[in-house]
Design brief:
The structure holds two protein chains of two kinds. Chain A is mainly α. Chain A has helices at about 20-25, 35-80. Chain B is mostly helical. Classes of the chains: A mainly alpha, B mainly alpha.
Chain lengths: ~80, ~240
């Protein structure tokens, strides 16, 4: 299997005691990845389907516009045929 | 060459059934990968990679049709070129959405300026520029030729996207092909092949549908111009 070069978490903190924690917040670099894999997977699948649905909707809307233009042309031809 | 009227519903139904089976297979049967690969989030892979393949397929259609248009201009070549670019944008967006969500779990970041990610983004932006240009400019021969050139440029970039990992390294995994170890579980392989099959059906369906729309639009524009000359319609 190909190797994934996962960035190594390197949490660093200067907070040493519970008392420090109560008095100071320190920004931590790195740390373990805590985002839920399940929510990421569901978001990805829903997002991909949403993109697909938008694409199909835009195609359908273009088809509707073409139908309207075709109808206009047919009506003009019919009007000319009558006159 | 477009799909016959009766074959399109069959293709749509087949595509829907394959996707339905694929999703339930991925969720219920395919095992979870190791934590370093993203764990449960690795299941994005079975749609992410086939989407990238569908992007290549759409790009190939765009390339052939664009070259065809430059060689011998016709409405048909232009329609296929346009359809290929539009579908390439859609599939490209699917890849660019799913990849970062998987990367968040596997790499700890949504995005990194990795060679493959960067070149893919560039390709999708080229196709997007083509689609936007076609939507907001006229439909004359000059615009079509310019778009055909753009279409060729977008597709020429695709082999660079594909081989960028081999050439320049980066974070992006190379599990399948290019020296990768492959998928360890047979169900993982089945899901990937099924994903390729499903995306091929979807790409064929979408590209033919968009090409037919573009061809109808071109024919209608010619008729409208003719009707305007005959004073049937007001000039567009």
């Amino acid at each position: 299997m190909g190797v994934m070069q996962t960035p190594t978490p390197n949490p660093t903190s200067t907070v040493k005691t519970p008392a420090d924690r109560a008095q100071e917040f320190v920004a931590v670099q790195g740390g373990p990845e805590t985002t839920s894999a399940q929510s990421l997977m569901v978001t990805a699948y829903c997002g991909m389907w949403a993109i697909l649905m938008v694409f199909i909707f835009l195609s359908w809307r273009r088809q509707q516009k073409l139908d309207a233009r075709l109808g206009e042309l047919e009506a003009a031809l019919a009007k000319r045929g009558r006159s | 060459m477009t799909l016959k009227k009766h074959s399109q519903p069959i293709l749509m139904l087949t595509t829907a059934l394959v996707f339905f089976y694929l999703i339930q297979f991925i969720v219920l049967t395919v095992p979870q990968a190791q934590a370093e690969a993203g764990g449960l989030a690795q299941k994005i892979f079975y749609f992410h990679v086939p989407s990238a393949y569908a992007l290549y397929l759409s790009g190939a259609v765009c390339f052939v049709a664009s070259a065809g248009y430059l060689y011998r201009p016709s409405d048909a070549w232009d329609s296929w070129s346009r359809a290929g670019a539009e579908c390439a944008v859609a599939f490209g967006c699917m890849v660019l959405l799913s990849g970062p969500l998987w990367a968040k779990k596997a790499w700890g970041v949504y995005w990194t300026w990795d060679p493959r990610l960067t070149t893919l983004l560039l390709s999708v932006l080229i196709y997007l520029a083509l689609v936007v240009m076609r939507a907001f400019t006229g439909d004359g021969d000059a615009e079509r030729k310019f778009a055909a050139g753009f279409g060729i440029l977008g597709t020429v970039n695709l082999p660079i996207v594909h081989y960028s990992v081999k050439k320049w390294g980066g974070n992006h995994p190379t599990v399948v092909g290019q020296g990768g170890g492959g998928l360890a579980d047979p169900n993982m392989r089945i899901a990937l092949y099924l994903g390729f099959f499903a995306m091929t059906l979807l790409a064929v369906l979408l590209i033919t549908a968009r090409a037919r729309l573009a061809q109808t639009n071109a024919k209608l524009m010619a008729l409208e111009e003719h009707a305007a000359v005959e004073e049937l319609l007001e000039s567009p």
